[in-house]
Specification:
By secondary structure, the chain is of the alpha/beta class. Its cofactor is Zn(2+).
Length: 361
Protein backbone atom coordinates (compact mmCIF):
# COMPACT_ATOMS: atom_id res chain seq x y z
CA UNK A 1 0.00 0.00 0.00
CA UNK A 2 1.38 3.40 -1.00
CA UNK A 3 2.61 5.68 1.81
CA UNK A 4 1.89 9.40 2.03
CA UNK A 5 5.03 11.44 2.83
CA UNK A 6 6.32 14.97 2.40
CA UNK A 7 8.41 15.84 -0.66
CA UNK A 8 9.92 18.94 -2.26
CA UNK A 9 8.54 19.35 -5.78
CA UNK A 10 9.59 21.69 -8.60
CA UNK A 11 6.25 22.23 -10.42
CA UNK A 12 7.53 24.13 -13.47
CA UNK A 13 10.50 25.94 -14.98
CA UNK A 14 11.91 28.54 -12.55
CA UNK A 15 8.84 28.27 -10.32
CA UNK A 16 9.41 28.20 -6.54
CA UNK A 17 9.58 24.69 -5.11
CA UNK A 18 6.66 23.45 -3.03
CA UNK A 19 6.39 21.05 -0.13
CA UNK A 20 3.78 18.53 -1.27
CA UNK A 21 2.26 15.28 -0.10
CA UNK A 22 3.57 12.53 -2.34
CA UNK A 23 2.71 8.86 -2.66
CA UNK A 24 5.51 6.29 -2.40
CA UNK A 25 4.47 2.82 -3.60
CA UNK A 26 5.56 -0.42 -1.98
CA UNK A 27 8.80 -1.64 -3.55
CA UNK A 28 8.45 -3.93 -6.54
CA UNK A 29 10.99 -6.47 -7.79
CA UNK A 30 14.50 -5.04 -7.57
CA UNK A 31 13.34 -1.93 -5.67
CA UNK A 32 13.75 -0.50 -2.18
CA UNK A 33 12.02 2.14 -0.08
CA UNK A 34 14.52 4.22 1.89
CA UNK A 35 13.73 6.43 4.86
CA UNK A 36 15.79 9.56 4.22
CA UNK A 37 17.81 10.97 7.11
CA UNK A 38 19.71 13.75 5.30
CA UNK A 39 20.03 15.17 1.79
CA UNK A 40 22.37 17.85 0.47
CA UNK A 41 21.17 20.77 -1.67
CA UNK A 42 23.15 20.42 -4.91
CA UNK A 43 23.52 22.67 -7.95
CA UNK A 44 22.07 19.83 -10.01
CA UNK A 45 18.77 20.23 -8.16
CA UNK A 46 18.81 23.91 -9.09
CA UNK A 47 19.49 22.95 -12.73
CA UNK A 48 16.41 20.71 -12.63
CA UNK A 49 14.31 23.53 -11.18
CA UNK A 50 15.54 25.88 -13.93
CA UNK A 51 14.71 23.40 -16.68
CA UNK A 52 18.39 23.04 -17.57
CA UNK A 53 18.43 19.22 -17.64
CA UNK A 54 15.04 18.05 -18.95
CA UNK A 55 11.53 19.48 -19.16
CA UNK A 56 9.86 16.49 -17.50
CA UNK A 57 8.16 18.52 -14.76
CA UNK A 58 7.10 18.13 -12.02
CA UNK A 59 10.38 17.00 -10.44
CA UNK A 60 10.84 15.46 -7.02
CA UNK A 61 14.13 17.10 -6.10
CA UNK A 62 17.05 15.89 -3.99
CA UNK A 63 19.67 13.22 -4.61
CA UNK A 64 22.70 13.67 -2.27
CA UNK A 65 21.16 11.48 0.38
CA UNK A 66 21.71 8.94 3.11
CA UNK A 67 19.16 6.96 5.05
CA UNK A 68 17.95 3.57 6.20
CA UNK A 69 16.37 0.89 4.01
CA UNK A 70 12.78 0.41 5.16
CA UNK A 71 11.60 -2.34 2.82
CA UNK A 72 12.71 -4.19 -0.30
CA UNK A 73 10.96 -5.91 -3.17
CA UNK A 74 11.26 -9.42 -4.55
CA UNK A 75 14.68 -10.57 -5.65
CA UNK A 76 16.64 -7.98 -3.67
CA UNK A 77 19.67 -9.55 -2.00
CA UNK A 78 22.26 -6.75 -1.88
CA UNK A 79 20.51 -4.69 0.83
CA UNK A 80 18.02 -5.45 3.58
CA UNK A 81 15.71 -3.49 5.87
CA UNK A 82 17.73 -1.68 8.52
CA UNK A 83 20.84 -1.14 6.34
CA UNK A 84 22.33 2.37 6.45
CA UNK A 85 22.96 3.43 2.86
CA UNK A 86 24.11 6.28 0.66
CA UNK A 87 21.96 6.68 -2.44
CA UNK A 88 23.72 6.79 -5.80
CA UNK A 89 22.70 7.45 -9.37
CA UNK A 90 25.05 4.86 -10.85
CA UNK A 91 23.38 1.52 -10.14
CA UNK A 92 25.40 -0.53 -12.58
CA UNK A 93 23.52 -2.89 -14.85
CA UNK A 94 26.28 -5.48 -15.38
CA UNK A 95 25.18 -6.11 -18.95
CA UNK A 96 25.87 -2.99 -21.08
CA UNK A 97 28.95 -2.67 -23.30
CA UNK A 98 30.86 -0.73 -20.60
CA UNK A 99 30.11 -3.26 -17.86
CA UNK A 100 30.97 -6.20 -20.12
CA UNK A 101 34.35 -4.62 -20.86
CA UNK A 102 35.10 -4.40 -17.14
CA UNK A 103 34.39 -0.68 -16.87
CA UNK A 104 31.27 -0.50 -14.69
CA UNK A 105 32.16 3.03 -13.59
CA UNK A 106 31.03 4.07 -17.09
CA UNK A 107 27.81 1.99 -17.04
CA UNK A 108 25.55 3.23 -19.84
CA UNK A 109 22.31 1.65 -18.58
CA UNK A 110 22.11 2.34 -14.85
CA UNK A 111 19.03 1.14 -12.98
CA UNK A 112 16.25 3.28 -11.53
CA UNK A 113 12.99 2.26 -9.88
CA UNK A 114 10.42 1.17 -12.44
CA UNK A 115 7.41 2.40 -10.49
CA UNK A 116 6.61 6.09 -10.28
CA UNK A 117 6.06 8.18 -7.19
CA UNK A 118 3.13 10.56 -7.63
CA UNK A 119 1.28 13.52 -6.22
CA UNK A 120 -2.01 12.74 -4.45
CA UNK A 121 -3.94 13.46 -7.65
CA UNK A 122 -1.96 10.81 -9.52
CA UNK A 123 0.44 13.15 -11.35
CA UNK A 124 3.66 11.25 -11.93
CA UNK A 125 6.86 12.76 -10.54
CA UNK A 126 10.29 12.69 -12.17
CA UNK A 127 12.82 12.02 -9.40
CA UNK A 128 16.04 14.04 -9.71
CA UNK A 129 18.79 11.71 -11.00
CA UNK A 130 16.38 8.83 -10.45
CA UNK A 131 16.42 9.39 -6.67
CA UNK A 132 14.13 12.20 -5.42
CA UNK A 133 15.36 12.45 -1.84
CA UNK A 134 14.00 15.76 -0.55
CA UNK A 135 11.34 13.54 0.97
CA UNK A 136 10.70 11.58 4.13
CA UNK A 137 10.96 8.39 2.05
CA UNK A 138 11.81 7.59 -1.54
CA UNK A 139 11.62 4.64 -3.93
CA UNK A 140 14.80 3.60 -5.74
CA UNK A 141 16.34 0.61 -7.46
CA UNK A 142 18.11 -1.51 -4.87
CA UNK A 143 21.39 -1.03 -6.74
CA UNK A 144 21.13 2.67 -5.95
CA UNK A 145 21.72 1.83 -2.27
CA UNK A 146 25.34 1.55 -1.14
CA UNK A 147 25.91 0.23 2.39
CA UNK A 148 28.40 2.12 4.55
CA UNK A 149 29.34 2.24 8.23
CA UNK A 150 26.24 3.43 10.15
CA UNK A 151 28.42 5.27 12.67
CA UNK A 152 29.02 8.13 10.22
CA UNK A 153 26.74 11.19 10.30
CA UNK A 154 24.00 11.00 7.62
CA UNK A 155 24.54 14.70 6.82
CA UNK A 156 28.16 13.90 5.95
CA UNK A 157 27.60 10.55 4.27
CA UNK A 158 24.93 11.81 1.89
CA UNK A 159 27.29 14.30 0.25
CA UNK A 160 29.14 11.42 -1.38
CA UNK A 161 25.95 10.80 -3.34
CA UNK A 162 26.90 13.53 -5.82
CA UNK A 163 29.03 16.68 -5.43
CA UNK A 164 31.83 15.57 -3.10
CA UNK A 165 32.25 12.27 -4.96
CA UNK A 166 32.21 14.12 -8.29
CA UNK A 167 35.05 16.39 -7.22
CA UNK A 168 37.25 13.83 -5.48
CA UNK A 169 36.71 11.41 -8.34
CA UNK A 170 37.50 14.06 -10.96
CA UNK A 171 40.96 14.37 -9.42
CA UNK A 172 41.70 10.75 -8.56
CA UNK A 173 39.68 8.63 -10.99
CA UNK A 174 39.36 10.81 -14.11
CA UNK A 175 42.41 13.07 -13.81
CA UNK A 176 44.67 10.35 -12.47
CA UNK A 177 46.45 12.82 -10.17
CA UNK A 178 49.59 11.21 -8.77
CA UNK A 179 52.29 11.94 -6.21
CA UNK A 180 54.19 15.11 -7.04
CA UNK A 181 51.79 16.31 -9.74
CA UNK A 182 50.78 19.92 -10.13
CA UNK A 183 47.03 20.52 -10.19
CA UNK A 184 44.84 23.55 -10.89
CA UNK A 185 41.16 23.64 -9.96
CA UNK A 186 39.00 26.29 -11.64
CA UNK A 187 35.80 26.96 -9.70
CA UNK A 188 35.81 26.39 -5.94
CA UNK A 189 32.26 25.56 -5.00
CA UNK A 190 31.44 22.20 -3.45
CA UNK A 191 32.68 20.14 -6.39
CA UNK A 192 35.81 22.23 -6.95
CA UNK A 193 36.81 22.12 -3.31
CA UNK A 194 36.23 18.38 -3.31
CA UNK A 195 38.65 18.20 -6.26
CA UNK A 196 41.18 20.08 -4.11
CA UNK A 197 40.69 17.45 -1.38
CA UNK A 198 41.11 14.67 -3.93
CA UNK A 199 44.30 16.19 -5.34
CA UNK A 200 45.75 16.53 -1.84
CA UNK A 201 44.75 12.95 -1.01
CA UNK A 202 46.53 11.73 -4.16
CA UNK A 203 49.77 13.47 -3.14
CA UNK A 204 49.83 16.48 -5.50
CA UNK A 205 52.75 18.78 -4.73
CA UNK A 206 51.11 21.99 -5.90
CA UNK A 207 47.38 22.72 -5.94
CA UNK A 208 46.26 26.05 -7.40
CA UNK A 209 42.66 27.05 -6.68
CA UNK A 210 40.97 29.58 -8.99
CA UNK A 211 37.73 31.45 -8.37
CA UNK A 212 36.23 34.96 -8.45
CA UNK A 213 35.09 34.83 -4.82
CA UNK A 214 37.70 35.30 -2.08
CA UNK A 215 35.47 33.43 0.39
CA UNK A 216 35.62 30.32 -1.75
CA UNK A 217 39.35 30.71 -2.19
CA UNK A 218 39.80 30.89 1.58
CA UNK A 219 37.85 27.66 1.87
CA UNK A 220 39.98 26.06 -0.84
CA UNK A 221 43.10 27.02 1.12
CA UNK A 222 41.66 25.35 4.22
CA UNK A 223 40.90 22.24 2.14
CA UNK A 224 44.49 21.87 0.95
CA UNK A 225 45.15 24.35 -1.89
CA UNK A 226 48.74 25.58 -1.82
CA UNK A 227 48.02 28.70 -3.90
CA UNK A 228 44.91 30.71 -4.79
CA UNK A 229 44.06 33.02 -7.69
CA UNK A 230 41.18 35.47 -7.94
CA UNK A 231 40.50 35.39 -11.68
CA UNK A 232 38.33 38.50 -11.47
CA UNK A 233 41.52 40.56 -11.12
CA UNK A 234 44.31 38.24 -12.29
CA UNK A 235 44.86 36.09 -15.38
CA UNK A 236 44.79 32.56 -13.94
CA UNK A 237 46.58 31.02 -16.92
CA UNK A 238 49.61 33.27 -16.40
CA UNK A 239 49.71 32.59 -12.66
CA UNK A 240 49.36 28.81 -13.07
CA UNK A 241 52.20 28.83 -15.56
CA UNK A 242 54.36 30.96 -13.27
CA UNK A 243 53.75 28.56 -10.41
CA UNK A 244 54.70 25.54 -12.54
CA UNK A 245 58.01 26.69 -14.00
CA UNK A 246 56.37 28.26 -17.04
CA UNK A 247 54.88 24.97 -18.23
CA UNK A 248 51.34 24.69 -16.88
CA UNK A 249 49.74 22.18 -14.53
CA UNK A 250 49.82 18.43 -15.05
CA UNK A 251 46.08 18.23 -14.39
CA UNK A 252 43.56 21.09 -14.64
CA UNK A 253 40.06 20.45 -13.32
CA UNK A 254 37.30 22.74 -14.63
CA UNK A 255 34.49 22.73 -12.08
CA UNK A 256 32.39 25.59 -13.48
CA UNK A 257 31.07 24.31 -16.80
CA UNK A 258 31.46 27.43 -18.93
CA UNK A 259 33.30 27.93 -22.25
CA UNK A 260 35.50 30.75 -20.93
CA UNK A 261 36.69 28.76 -17.92
CA UNK A 262 37.22 25.68 -20.06
CA UNK A 263 39.52 27.71 -22.34
CA UNK A 264 41.44 28.81 -19.26
CA UNK A 265 41.81 25.17 -18.25
CA UNK A 266 42.95 24.18 -21.73
CA UNK A 267 45.73 26.77 -21.87
CA UNK A 268 46.72 26.38 -18.22
CA UNK A 269 47.80 22.74 -18.63
CA UNK A 270 51.24 21.48 -19.48
CA UNK A 271 52.02 19.83 -22.81
CA UNK A 272 50.58 16.31 -22.65
CA UNK A 273 48.69 17.35 -19.52
CA UNK A 274 45.08 16.53 -18.75
CA UNK A 275 41.98 18.73 -18.65
CA UNK A 276 39.01 17.35 -16.72
CA UNK A 277 35.58 18.90 -17.20
CA UNK A 278 33.40 18.17 -14.18
CA UNK A 279 31.37 21.41 -14.17
CA UNK A 280 27.99 20.91 -15.86
CA UNK A 281 27.32 23.13 -18.92
CA UNK A 282 23.87 24.16 -20.08
CA UNK A 283 22.47 22.98 -23.44
CA UNK A 284 23.05 26.20 -25.36
CA UNK A 285 26.78 26.50 -24.57
CA UNK A 286 29.34 25.91 -27.31
CA UNK A 287 33.13 25.81 -27.30
CA UNK A 288 35.55 27.01 -29.97
CA UNK A 289 39.27 26.17 -29.86
CA UNK A 290 41.91 26.31 -32.60
CA UNK A 291 42.22 22.73 -33.82
CA UNK A 292 45.96 23.19 -34.26
CA UNK A 293 46.25 23.98 -30.55
CA UNK A 294 44.29 20.85 -29.67
CA UNK A 295 46.64 18.82 -31.85
CA UNK A 296 49.83 20.58 -30.84
CA UNK A 297 49.37 20.38 -27.09
CA UNK A 298 48.66 16.65 -26.97
CA UNK A 299 47.52 15.16 -23.68
CA UNK A 300 43.93 14.40 -22.82
CA UNK A 301 40.65 16.30 -22.69
CA UNK A 302 38.26 14.38 -20.47
CA UNK A 303 34.77 14.72 -19.08
CA UNK A 304 34.09 13.34 -15.62
CA UNK A 305 30.65 11.88 -14.96
CA UNK A 306 30.11 11.43 -11.23
CA UNK A 307 33.85 11.46 -10.73
CA UNK A 308 33.97 8.22 -12.77
CA UNK A 309 33.15 6.53 -9.49
CA UNK A 310 32.03 3.00 -8.70
CA UNK A 311 29.84 3.56 -5.62
CA UNK A 312 30.31 0.08 -4.19
CA UNK A 313 34.08 0.66 -4.22
CA UNK A 314 34.45 4.38 -3.59
CA UNK A 315 31.77 5.27 -1.03
CA UNK A 316 32.95 2.87 1.71
CA UNK A 317 36.59 3.80 1.04
CA UNK A 318 35.95 7.53 1.44
CA UNK A 319 33.85 6.98 4.56
CA UNK A 320 36.76 5.00 6.02
CA UNK A 321 39.20 7.81 5.18
CA UNK A 322 36.87 10.29 6.84
CA UNK A 323 36.62 8.20 9.98
CA UNK A 324 40.42 7.84 10.05
CA UNK A 325 40.74 11.63 9.96
CA UNK A 326 42.53 11.63 6.59
CA UNK A 327 39.79 13.70 4.93
CA UNK A 328 37.21 15.93 6.59
CA UNK A 329 33.92 15.42 4.78
CA UNK A 330 32.18 17.40 7.50
CA UNK A 331 33.95 20.55 6.30
CA UNK A 332 31.59 20.61 3.31
CA UNK A 333 28.48 20.99 5.50
CA UNK A 334 27.91 24.73 5.90
CA UNK A 335 24.48 24.45 7.50
CA UNK A 336 21.69 22.01 8.27
CA UNK A 337 18.12 23.01 7.40
CA UNK A 338 14.58 21.68 7.42
CA UNK A 339 12.72 20.17 4.48
CA UNK A 340 10.73 23.39 4.06
CA UNK A 341 13.83 25.54 3.60
CA UNK A 342 15.07 24.31 0.21
CA UNK A 343 14.01 27.39 -1.80
CA UNK A 344 15.96 29.67 0.56
CA UNK A 345 18.93 27.30 0.33
CA UNK A 346 18.94 27.71 -3.46
CA UNK A 347 19.19 31.48 -2.95
CA UNK A 348 22.15 31.13 -0.59
CA UNK A 349 23.82 28.70 -2.98
CA UNK A 350 23.41 31.08 -5.92
CA UNK A 351 24.94 33.89 -3.85
CA UNK A 352 27.96 31.73 -2.98
CA UNK A 353 27.18 31.82 0.73
CA UNK A 354 27.42 28.05 1.31
CA UNK A 355 29.34 24.99 0.21
CA UNK A 356 26.42 22.75 1.12
CA UNK A 357 23.13 23.21 2.88
CA UNK A 358 21.94 19.83 4.10
CA UNK A 359 18.29 18.98 4.73
CA UNK A 360 18.03 16.89 7.91
CA UNK A 361 14.85 14.87 8.40
Amino acid sequence: MAQEVRGVVAPGKNEPVRLETILVPDPGPGEAVVKIQACGVCHTDLHYKQGGITDEFPFLLGHEAAGVVESVGDGVTDVAPGDFVILNWRAVCGACRACLRGRPQYCFDTHNARQKMTLKDGTELTPALGIGAFADKTLVASGQCTKVDPEVSPAVAGLLGCGVMAGIGAAINTGGVGRGDSVAVIGCGGVGNAAVVGARLAGASRIVAVDIDDRKLDTAKSMGATHTVNSRTTDPVEVIRELTGGFGADVVIEAVGRPETYRQAFYARDLAGTVVLVGVPTPEMTLELPLLDVFGRGGALKSSWYGDCLPSRDFPMLIDLHQQGRIDLGAFVTETIGIGDVEQAFTRMHAGDVLRSVVVL
